[in-house]
Every structure is written in C-alpha cells, then in structure tokens.
Amino acid sequence: MSHSRRGLLFVLSSPSGAGKTTITRRLLADDPALSMSVSVTTRPPRDGEVDGRDYHFIDKPAFDELVATRALLEYAQVFEHWYGTPIAPVEATLGAGRDMVFDVDWQGAQQVRRRLPDHFVSVFVLPPSMTELHDRLRRRAKDSEKTVLARMAKAVDEVSHYDEYDYVIVNDEIERAVADVKSIFVAERLKRVRQTWLAAFVAKLLGPS
C-alpha cells in the first residue's frame, strides 16, 4: 500500500574523514526515492568532480547575489571557500513528497532547522577515535599534512556540536553505520505527522461499513 506523505530533509554531518560522504553515496545508490541536495561553492573543482553533479561551481559575486536575494537555504564559510544550498530545488522536492539528503556541517544544519523545522531530521556521524580520524585523512592522500592538521583542528569543534543533532552514530564499521542510518530514515518516514493520508484513512476505517 502506497500513500503520500510530506518530504523530509535528512541532514548528515561529520568531521571530514568520518565517513559521511561514503554513507551518503550508499544511501543514494540503495534508495531511488532519495535525492541529493547539490550545493553551490566558490572553491574550484577537484579532480573528477563534475559541475552540477558534485557541486555548482560559481564565483564569489554570484554567491553574494544568492545570499542577498535569500535564494540559499543555508550557507557557511569552510576554510577559505563558501558553500550554500539553493532553496528552490529543495522546495520543489519537498512539494513532490520526495526526500533529500544534505551533506552540511553543524552551522548549515542549524540554518536548515530554523528555515524548515517541520521537515528536518539530523544525523551526526562520529569517528571511532580521533586517532583513527587522523589516519583516515592521511590515507586519503589528497591533502598536505598542513591541511590534515587544519581539518583535525576543525574536527574538534565540529564534534563538540554532536548534541545538537537528533541522532548520533559511531562509524567504526561502514556496513553497520549505513544500516543504522537506513533505520533512522525508515522510522522518520513512518512518523504519524509525516503521513498526511492517515486522517482520511482512519475516518474511512471507522465509517459506516
């Protein structure tokens, strides 16, 4: 039995290297009803990144115009670059009863909650230890040691905001972490307030037979 419901915004946050991106990719691959919010950013593309798929790459004046016209659901500066979420595709997706997953930091999560509190679910992903997080960042071999140390310093601040999230998981094993996030999604989708069809359905159940 399939019924309509309100779309949801699933926000996933974690320190860089804790596994948020891997979990998100698995969720998108396994759940055709889920779509990814594509952010805008002022940073240049990295090797293999595609404009419109990974990010919308724009310059700072264009970013400032989006901020000025309130076209961004959330935005923040991360190191020397700016990132933001265009609100128009989010509203269109929610209006169609579909769900979106967001890969944003704690600042972005707070902004999204303020703008769309009734549609918001947040999950924070913790590493099993800070030593393991440092090792994961070094194994990626994409950043200099200076950048790795900067990311570790930022990670300390990010982890301190864990208690602002609805759910928290520890990614010590990727398969279990993915399964945990999927369980959260199932439970949130089944909440009574999300299922807008229930009142009419129950009225029919209780009506004259």
Short précis:
With 209 residues, the protein is an alpha/beta fold. The protein is built from 8 helices and 9 strands. It has helices spanning 20-30, 60-68, 87-95, 106-115, 130-139, 145-159, 174-189, 198-206, and strands at 9-13, 34-36, 40-41, 56-57, 72-78, 81-86, 99-103, 120-126, 167-170.
List keywords for this structure.
209 residues, alpha/beta, Rossmann fold, five-stranded parallel β-sheet, four-stranded mixed β-sheet, 43% helix, globular
Give your account of this protein's structure.
It is a single chain. The chain is of the alpha/beta class. Helices cover 43% and strands 20% of the residues. It contains eight helices and nine strands. It has a five-stranded parallel sheet, with helices on both faces. The chain has a four-stranded mixed sheet with strand order 4-3-6-5. A hairpin with a 2-residue loop joins β5 and β6. The protein is globular and about 70 Å long. The mean pLDDT is 89.
CATH fourth-tier homologous superfamily of the domain at 9-37 and 98-206 = P-loop containing nucleotide triphosphate hydrolases
Q: What is the third-level CATH name, the topology of the domain at 9-37 and 98-206? A: Rossmann fold
Low-confidence stretches: none
Q: Given this structure, which CATH class of the domain at 9-37 and 98-206 is correct?
A: Alpha Beta
Order of strands in the sheet with most strands: 2-7-1-8-9
The major pleated sheet works out as: 5 strands, parallel
Radius of gyration: 19 Å
Number of strands: 9
Protein structure class? alpha/beta
Percent strand: 15-25%
